[in-house]
Amino acid sequence: MAKKQRTPQEKSIDPAAQKMLIRADELGLETAFSRADNMAPCNIGAAGLCCKLCGMGPCRVTKDGQTGVCGATMDTIQARNLGRSIAAGASAHSDHGRDMAFTLKAVANDETEGFVIRDVAKLRNVAATYDIPIEGRSPKEIANELADLFIAQFGSQVGPIVPLKRASQKRQKIWADRKVQPRGIDREVVDMLHRTHMGDDQDYEHIMEQAVRTALADGWGGSMIGTDVSDILFGTPAPVHGQANLGVLKTDMVNVVVHGHEPTLSQMIAAATQDPEIIAYAKAAGAKGVNLAGICCTANEILVRQGVPVAGNFLHQELSILTGAVEAMVVDVQCIMQALVNLAENFHTKIITTSSKVKIKGATHMEFDERHAMTIAKDILKTAIDNFKERGATHIPDDKQDLIPGFSHEYINYMLGGSYRASFRPLNDGIISGRIRGVAAIVGCNNPRSQQDYLLTHVAEELLKQDVLVVETGCGAIAAAKKGLLLGEAGLDKVGPGLREICEAVGIPPVLHMGSCVDNSRILTVLTQMVEEGGLGDDIDQVPAVGLAPEWMSEKALAIATYCVASGAYVIFGGSSPVGGMPDRIDESDIVLNYLSKGWEEAYGGKLEFIPDPDEMVRATLAHIDKKRADLGLPEYDPTRFGKSGDTRMLELEKLPLSERRESIYGVAAD
Ligand code: NFS
Prior knowledge:
By secondary structure, this protein is an alpha/beta fold. It folds into 4 domains: 8-60, no CATH class; 74-234, Substrate Binding Domain Of Dnak, Chain:A, Domain 2 (Up-down Bundle), CATH 1.20.1270.30; 242-390, Rossmann fold, CATH 3.40.50.2030; 404-574 and 611-641, Rossmann fold. The chain contains 28 helices and 16 strands. Strand 15, helix 25 and strand 16 (607-610) form a beta-alpha-beta unit. The radius of gyration is 24 Å and the shape is globular. It starts with 7 loop residues before the first helix and ends in a 5-residue tail after the last helix. The relative contact order is 0.12. FE(4)-NI(1)-S(5) cluster is lined by residues 261, 296-297, 314, 335, 444-445, 474-475, 516-517, 554, 556-557.
């Protein structure tokens, strides 16, 4: 029997989502929200206390002193489960990076259709970082050598992997001393799977050490490679005008939603929508053209570069189909719910899988191949256009928000200083003076077990009031976008006085959208460059900064948390911890959980904590920031000292209508 359901308002704070959830109820259709209400999670599995790694079990250990059949203790079982999750998350990001590196290689050798090297400056910069000669060489020659270097990081056996050199000297020494430098990206994942096989590593601290090695291979390896190659091929993001939420779908156009993670196919589809042949084809079918929108991180990839509208974050994938207005949902890899196919059967929507790694029973498979990228992109669009005539009644909510995304670390550097004096100095000075109390990175997923977007946006809004500059990626950034936090002039009245002065003087929104989850590597780069700029200590663990994933759900999030902690950051997760969670009943179940905070803090200066209450998250964030300020000898945060700079430019701007103000601040015109 169906369990008690939350109301649409309890399921999501987003008005568009609420409308679609009401629609789902009217039609008697399920969504992840209703399935979450119907599914009681297993509390033993939730605490990481179920071991099913061999055929003697599964063993469920629920009492102090109890072990598995082989004698494995609670801490060993939890560490193995967590370690395997981190390896899976690191694999997803890193395999994405590998595919990007192979695409770069193919572009360098003229083996693709439609791809070019769009950002030669970034190519030269990245190549020079890795001591690849650039003078007198063509972009393709450089790209070929860089691609080889990147590809080699996956199969390397002895390491350390080369991107580690982008960390601070102090951090590199910590990793070397603790012998956690990844030897090769694939090697660390295999090592983790090996040592968690039955009868291998049975010391939880030692298993967690491998978790760190594997996660570092993601953050400073696969993810960093993924971000760099995406920028080289598709352009380094800079501010652009975009829109977010289901209201971006159009009644008079063929709506194609791209969902997943990799930018290669979605970039090509974005280009193909502008092709005269496709426009003519759509017009012949009775539509005005093709309207492309994104879901999840593939949306972020094309939003931050081209301003392609975002239909929503993770929990919007089913809701977009419920509008009845989507001709095709084109998916590649990661975060794709199998439920899409069943749901789509109630509408005309075609679910099209495109990756050699992902098929879904009942979906149409049109496999992507970069050698014929443009041809395949057009075929996919024609399939969607052919489906337009099948469209029935549509229910598109009219909710959408403007936003300005595109804050790559290169752009942040540039905007703070301009072309000739690009530097992080103004940001560091802002923190040192106390105008900016500290920095928070709010990242990660939606989780249908909590109210969609509430934790993400509540924490962001509370921190902004406290003069904390917020940077975001992934589905967290889309939540902020839908709430209107990614537009400076819309949100500055809700921002603390010091932060407001900085945003007004520099011309930035108080929440900076830095890209997809793979682009969390940009946050590592920003923090490292802030340290290099001077005045904020000699490593990330001294910077007054915190990372938060209030609504996490994926294994990728656990990998991100681990590499951020190993890089020195304090990381707070909402929801429940995958290790522990039964503290009232068993003390032993807390050993690994405590190790992730206290043990890792001793080793790396960063720590991971699980805090379900959002106000508690805000308090812990501010306490950490203030402690780091005090340790650096910076003045105590005092909001009364700022907010009266009387910056004349801002006073003039305030007289302009909103649309002109935006253009004047960001150099980006409104629609
Ligand atoms: Ni990140 Fe992006 Fe979203 Fe979570 Fe999934 S889309 S990679 S895992 S749900 S933020």
